[in-house]
Amino acid sequence: ALQCGIVGLPNVGKSTLFNCLSNAKAQSANFPFCTIEPNVGVITVPDHRLVQLEKLVNPQRVVPTTVEIVDIAGLVKGASKGEGLGNKFLANIRETDAIIHVLRCFEDENVTHVDGTIDPVRDKDVIDMELQLKDLETVESRISKTEKMAKTSKDPDAKRLLDVLLKYKDALESGKSARVVELSDQEKQIAKELYLLTNKPIMYVCNVDESAVVSGNQHVAAVKEAVKNENARVLVIAAQTEAEIAELETFEERQMFLEDLGLKESGVSKLIRLAYELLELKTFFTAGEKEVRAWTFPAGALAPQAAGVIHTDFEKGFIRAEVIKYNDFTNLGSEQACKEAGKIHVEGKEYEVQDGDVMHFRFNV
Ligand code: GDP
């Protein structure tokens, strides 16, 4: 399964956020290094369409889809040189598919900051620099291998790879992340295989006090300005408050608390949806009387691959897919009504599954 990693300096609110996100209670304390082992949380993706389908189909059970989030152990200055839990931390990041970078944008004298003052842009730069230094190491070692190949074999692929590596080297040496380097589509394909840390899709989470959750504050404004060229999402969240909300018993109580803050939806549920987008994941549904269920597939997947998400046999023996558009299903109210209206589309192996499709697969066993 694809994973998002939560990173950030110690005491910025990573564990607090992770706790809100997952049922697994990671310990959270005013103490750097309290999250030593990477904690993996399997998190339900909120989806209003599932609620609609449940109402119409009235199934025995409803199964939402999930995304995995890992809370990665504390990073400090010098990690790329192996300080703190540096090497372990970087290895954990390498395994994730996207990054959620938590930045401390709240003031609180009782919570120690590793550098004494609140400055999320500086904090971001500290982490970026460690990741960039590690990437530079990767890039330089690949350059020395590739240079020889490019010379001796006259292999055009080696030459192309070398070009990409040199572009990255330039950027990394001047304190930029790999993700800001402009590449052609062909070069992007080559770049993928380098698995650079600073090339992963990223979302910045500004952790604020509840008073700033709607309007932001000067720290949030500074972060937005600093990342405007990165093609990154910025989400403002009050992790501490969300943790308190999560403790409330009923949905109504939680909703009331959110509305008092001026929010329609919890920050956590926004974060999960954004993480899902960051990972380029989409959802299709199956809607039978036994079970209404959401399934995750990678954007661009063809019908057999999507069928394979349910069962490998569905992919191997794939014959065809019967597809109802979500809007047709909810407008007409049932599969039978869709059938009568000619709204069931029969699709073959080349069909690119769309977000929201309600699917039936036909296959040989
Ligand atoms: P981590 O080291 O990044 O995982 O940070 P933690 O989640 O353990 O948080 C460190 C401390 O900051 C804890 O005492 C939290 O209760 C506190 N904290 C986290 N988020 C907030 C926030 O939004 N506002 C305030 N005032 N405190 C927070």
Automatic annotation (TrEMBL):
The protein's required cofactors: Mg(2+)
Gene Ontology MF term list: ATP binding; ATP hydrolysis activity; GTP binding; metal ion binding; ribosomal large subunit binding
Q: In this protein, which residues make up the domain named TGS?
A: 280-363
Which UniProt keywords are listed? Answer: ATP-binding, Magnesium, Metal-binding, Nucleotide-binding
Pfam families given in the database record: MMR_HSR1 (PF01926), YchF-GTPase_C (PF06071)
Q: Name one GO cellular component term.
A: cytoplasm
**Belongs to which family?**
Belongs to the TRAFAC class OBG-HflX-like GTPase superfamily. OBG GTPase family. YchF/OLA1 subfamily.
What this protein is reported to do is described as: ATPase that binds to both the 70S ribosome and the 50S ribosomal subunit in a nucleotide-independent manner.
Q: Spell out the protein name for this chain.
A: Ribosome-binding ATPase YchF
Q: What is the lineage of its organism?
A: Bacteria, Pseudomonadati, Bacteroidota, Bacteroidia, Marinilabiliales
